[in-house]
Structure formats: structure tokens, C-alpha cells
Amino acid sequence: MFEMTESGLVAASVDTVRADFTDASRLSEWIWPPRFETHAVIEGGVGGRWQIVSRVAELAVLGRILAIEAPRKLRLEWRWEGEDHSTDAEITLAEAADSSTRVSIRHSGFLSLEERESHIEGWSNCLQRLIDRHGGVPFSG
């Protein structure tokens, strides 16, 4: 199995960034490009749905919340619609200087190097959109 880590420094508080990952309307605004017309569903706590869907791009992540350590950690089951295999995405938020937040994504359980590389590119793009939303500095794992 393969895994990856991507990180970035977001010029917003931990609480703000946490809301960007846990509030469906906020997540829909940045997780994928605007042209995807993204719709997110986040239901409840552990065991609840955490899904992002773009019918325009014909993409959907049908996940669920595996663990929450508010406000610092969110662990998700990550399964692409139409696939049987799921992976594990852990999002960690840490306070940084100047009221910024260090965001780290550790995504594991990939079956191939190609799948891993695709997710590195995807998470890098997602983190850049989050940085564009608030300001900050990208850096990688």
C-alpha cells in the first residue's frame, strides 16, 4: 500500500480552516474548481457522511467520518464513486505564527503508485485553492 502527505500554511485561524472542512456549504466553495459546481454533504460526527459531488465533472467522493479530534484532526474514509476500494484521509490542523494554520493531509491505502501520484496532484490543487481563499504559503510533504 502507498501513502502521501501534502501540507500548506493557510492565513486563517484553526477554527476557520476547520469550518472549511466541516461545513458543507464552505467546503463546496473551495474543495474543487468552481466550474465543477461542487455540492458537499456532511452529516454528524463519527460514522456520518462526508461527501463531495460534481455532476458536471462526473466525480464524487462518497466518504464518511472515521474520527474527529476537534478542532485539530479529521479522519475520513475516502471512496470514489464507482470504486469498491476506499482509502484513509487524515487532515491535521496546527496553529502557526501570525494566527495562521498549518494544514497537513496524510492520505493512505493506495493500491498503486499511479493512484498515489494522482492524489498528490489533487490534494496539492485543493490546498492551493484553500490558500487562495485565505492567503498563505503552499509547501509539500
What report would you give on this structure?
The protein is α+β, with helices and mostly antiparallel strands. It contains three helices and eight strands.
In short:
This protein has helices spanning 14-22, 24-30, 113-134, and strands spanning 2-10, 39-42, 49-54, 59-69, 73-78, 87-95, 101-110, 136-140.
Query: How many helices in DSSP terms?
Result: 3
Spatial order of the strands forming the largest sheet: 2-3-4-5-6-7-1-8
* Poorly predicted residue ranges: none
Q: Please give the share of residues in helix.
A: 25-40%
Specify the structural class. alpha+beta
How large is the radius of gyration? 14 Å
What's the total count of β strands? 8
Percent range for β-strand residues = 35-45%
The average pLDDT is 95
